[in-house]
Amino acid sequence: MECARCGTEMITAQFLTGGIGSPPYLMSKRPGIFEPEHRCGVDCFVCPGCGAVELQAQDVKKLLLD
Q: CB-hemisphere CA count at 13 Å for 1?
């Protein structure tokens, strides 16, 4: 993936949450405590040239509410 800021090729990096064994994720949910969560993993890219960070949803369709 090319950096939108400077055009340098970005590298893949780990985006950590601080929780042990807990990878970062995106979540969408309807209001209400009994409504299910829709989750999707996150890929992280870092530009070695300018330091820009880009996060990308692994499967955005999983976030769509029925």
A: 18
3-state secondary structure of 61: helix
Which residue in the block uniquely carries the two structure tokens 């499967």?
59
User: Given the DSSP bridges, would you call strands 53-57 and 11-13 parallel, antiparallel or unpaired?
Assistant: unpaired
In this predicted model, what pLDDT tens digit does every residue of 5-23 receive, in sequence order?
999 999 999 887 767 777 8
pTM of the model: 0.74
Among 43, 65, 47, 64, which Cα is nearest to 55's? 43
Q: Which two tokens stand for residue 45?
A: 């890219």
pLDDT in tens, 37-51: 888 989 999 999 999
